Each structure stands twice: as structure tokens, then as C-alpha cells.
Amino acid sequence: MKVLHILNELKYSGAEVMLKVALEEFNKSNIESHIVSKGKYIGNYAKILKEEGYKTSHISFKPAYKVVFNMFRMVRYINRNEIDVIHIHTGSNYLWVLIASKLSNAKKIIRTVHNAFYLNGIRYFKHYIERKIARIFDVKHYSISESVHTSEKNEFNNETVIIDNWYNDKKFEPVDYNEKSRLRKSLKLPVNKTILITVGNGSKVKNYWSIIDSLQKLDKNIIYIYIGNQDPNVPESDYARRSGVGDRFFYLGSVNNVDEYLKASDIYLMPSLYEGFGIAAIEAIGVGLPCILSEAPGLKDFIEAGKGVYYINLDNIVAGICEKIEFINDLSVGEKEEIKNNLSNFAKTNFGIENGVRRYIQVYNSIQ
Prior knowledge:
The strands form 2 sheets. Strands 3-2-1-4-5-6-7 form a 7-stranded parallel sheet, with helices on both faces. A 6-stranded parallel sheet has the order 10-9-8-11-12-13, sandwiched between helices. The protein is of the alpha/beta class. It has helices at about 15-30, 45-50, 65-80, 95-105, 120-135, 145-155, 175-185, 210-215, 235-240, 260-265, 280-285, 315-330, 335-350, 355-365; strands at about 1-5, 30-35, 55-60, 85-90, 110-115, 140-145, 160, 195-200, 220-225, 250-255, 265-270, 290-295, 310. Helix 6 (about 145-155) links the parallel strand 6 (about 140-145) and strand 7. It has 2 domains: about 1-165 and about 350-365, Rossmann fold (3-Layer(aba) Sandwich); about 175-350, Rossmann fold (3-Layer(aba) Sandwich), CATH 3.40.50.2000. The chain is globular. The mean pLDDT is about 95.
């Protein structure tokens, strides 16, 4: 069985991280796994996926005037490698990817929708038509959460099957106070400060600037660690410096030991304007970190975690962040320990690696 995953530029992001974690299970099921990046660049995460064992390639669908040529390059790749299943993870150039997939000798085409889309105008019409064509091509759609499933059904009349995201539950585990202190010293982090952390690539949708705005109003003993690529238009480090909190903002870029930084931190934040189902939030919950999340579609699905997940209204986000941080800081040691155990148990039970991966393996094998 050979499966091809089609993504955009390969970055440290949800789909890529899940695929990295899933490879061991794919190998156990005798699945040969390929990844094609169709972004302008192959992406800095391609090397990590290749080292993990994926067969990675780059077939860019840019510039636009070469899209037909590159579509046929995709067809040749699929046929030359005798791909059985095409698994599409991206919506950009979706129509061209669909046509390439349909023209190939692949036996099955599926797509996972990773975000909840609420669009209007031309963009809505484009997404609606693409999904309609996909159904004509007998493409089966999957969604990563109840919120994404609802969005697809209500917005685009597109029925999906829910297969939840997963995380590496053997790596993202809670630690005790002594291990947390040891990690802070090892990572050269201050021992006696409250550490806020985000993991993800900056963009308008991620809304990380609101955390920086909050820092201006919070105690100077609170610092913010930022892991991921910065927004290319308004880099968060520049914004922090202009806001007067540059000395409390620590930009680390992409790192290989995200789990250690989460374990060394105190509070995880995700103030996104919208999300599909944040894999980074699942990892933070797995570690047992109290989480401050926006009420965006996709993140609301974590409400079932109960104590330890706190929601903020997007209309008053800075005040909400400040209020929740101060509330968490005032919790007793015993209450924080209870939250840690509750959250890690919730994550492992609902989003452990075997849950979603095995369901996709069943989907792949259903062609036989």
C-alpha cells in the first residue's frame, strides 16, 4: 500500500506534526508514505519528515501560469510511484490537485479539511464549487473536529466523517515540580517567573499581537515565549519591541524540543480568530498546562476538557487574557496539580496517537 500526502509548504504546523508522529504506525501496517509539497518552496520541515522516513518531493503549483504543467508533473509522480491512495491536506489549488489526482492511476482520493471556514463572496463560491466537483469525483471528505464538521455541513453542504487530530502522547506528558525546574535551568529560562507560551506560525488569524498587548498590562514578572515562524508582514518581535515589552518577549523560531519548552512553561495561549482544531493546544493539554483559548470555532471543542481550559471572548480579548492569567496565577499548588492531571488524562484518552492514525489506516486499507 502506497499513500501520497499532498500539502503546501512544509512547516512546523499541525498536519505536518501529526504525519511525523503517525509514521511508525503507518510502517507497522506496511504503508509506504510519500509527501509532496506544492508550495512555492518545499519548506524547512521537509528535512525533518525525510529524516523520519517519508519520501518527500516538491512540485510547486506556482507561478500560476505554470499550474497546468505542474499538474501533469503531479500525475507523472503519482503514476511513476504507483500510488494507491491520495490524501489531500490543503485547499489551495484544490481544483488542480483534484484533476491531477483523477487523471492518475490512484485507486482512492480523500481530503482532510483542517480548518473551519466561514467565507463570503467569491471565496465562498470557489470553496463551494470545489467541494461539489470533489463529490462528483467521488472524493471522501474528513474533518478534524466537530466544529469543522459543522462548518463544512452548514456552509458548503459538504458531509464529512470526523477523525480527530492526534498528538504524541508518549512525548507530551506532564512533569513534576523538580523536573520543571531542571528543564528551566537546562533551557536557560528564568526559574522564578511566570512563563506564557505559544506554539505556531504567526499570522493575522493567530492573533499573537493580543498577547503582546496583554503583556503591557501584566506584572513584569510574566514573560512570553514564542515558538514558530513570525508573521512576515508584522513580525511579533518587532511589535513587542515597539510596545515596550521586548525584554519580556522571547522569540525562539522553530525548535526540535517543543515538549521541553511546554513542560517548562506555566500557561499556554491560543487567541486565534479561527482554528480547525489546534494540534499545539492538544500537546499543551497533554503536558497538563492550563490553557487560555479564544472562543473561535475549533477551539470550543476543548470545552469538554473541563477545569484547566479557559475561554476568552474575541470582542474583549486583551482584558480577557489578563483576567485569566491573574486567575491562574492565584490558584493553589494543589489546584494546579489537579488541573495538570485532569488535562493530561483528557488528552491521552481522546487524542492519543493510536486513535486517529488507526482510523486513517482503516480508510486507506478499504480500497482493497
